Amino acid sequence: MVSTDRLVAFAALSFLLIIVPGPSVLFVIGRALAHGRRAALTTVVGNTLGAYLLVVAVALGIGSLVERSVLVFTALKLAGAAYLVYLGVKAWRQRGSLRAAFAGEEAVPHSGLRTLWEGFAVGVANPKTIVFFAAVLPQFVDREQGHVTGQMLLLGLVFNLIAVASDSVWGLIAATARDWFARSPRRLSAVGGVGGLTMIGLGVTVAVTGRKD
Predict the structure, then answer these.
(1) What Å distances lie between residue 35 and 48, 56, 171, 180, CA to CA?
(2) The whole model's pTM is what?
(3) Distance of alpha carbon 73 from alpha carbon 131, whole angstroms
(4) How does 141-158 read in b/e, with b if 16+ C-beta sit within 10 Å?
(5) Number of C-beta neighbours around residue 61 at 10 A
(6) Which of 196, 9, 209, 212 shows the shortest CA–CA distance to 90?
(7) Do 102 and 182 touch, CB atoms closer than 8 A?
(8) Do 145 and 33 touch, CB atoms closer than 8 A?
(9) What is the mean pLDDT of the segment spanning 2-8?
(10) Burial of 210 (C-beta count, 10 Å sphere; 0-12/13-18/19+)
(11) DSSP string, 45-102
(12) Would you state the pLDDT for residue 50?
């Protein structure tokens, strides 16, 4: 299996990459501002499941196809960007439901499964994560030890455990800020708008992000 030195080096690299806010973090923050702590943590779980599916894909060799094909990469990138923009516009249009929820009125339903799915969809459609796993993950595999697929799955698990911890902290911080917003009707009305605009901006950023080649 993976040597201790390689595992530690990969964990350190993953930590440095994860602590810098990226697409997943921004999406979790948007969910926290729009729907609160539970939605943020559920989004983290869904996002992690989606990201680990990418690890499985890379371990089975699918990631190399995305790395080589500009067409596949672009299609996946634009699909993820469009979904983010869609969620952002939806959050903006439904921003008034937050005030209704705190006032005891009926808000727009947002089930746990739906939140989990949205997080999963964003996680699995993140082109930057695909490229990272496809380009970096294989470099830490010791092929002389055998069990290459198992080593990749283990390394991917380490990455995702770090991501869960980091994204959860970001989500909890954002949810706490949401509680502060909730003390004022005007602040509360702005929460959904901020979350929506964050996701729209994230979608546009993903769409214009290109490849080095």
Answers:
(1) 19, 30, 11, 14
(2) 0.67
(3) 9
(4) beeeeeeeeebbbbbbeb
(5) 10
(6) 196
(7) yes
(8) no
(9) 82
(10) exposed
(11) HHHHHHHHHHHHHHHTT-HHHHHH-HHHHHHHHHHHHHHHHHHHHHHHHTTHHHHHHH
(12) 92
Decide: 161 and 10 in contact? Cβ < 8 Å.
no
Q: Which two tokens stand for residue 189?
A: 């009305």
Structure-block tokens of residue 97? 């439901």
Q: Are 89 and 200 in contact (CB under 8 A)?
A: yes
How far out from the chain centre does Cα 20 lie?
13
3-state secondary structure of 141: coil
What is d(CA 27, CA 45) in angstroms, rounded to the nearest whole number? 12
Whether 174 and 35 have beta carbons less than 8 Å apart is answered as no
- The encoded tokens of residue 104 equal 């005891």
Nearest to 204 by CA among 109, 120, 83: 83
Return the residue matching tokens 């943590």: 41
The predicted model gives 44-69 an average pLDDT of 80
- Reported as a pLDDT band with limits 50, 70 and 90, residue 49 is very high
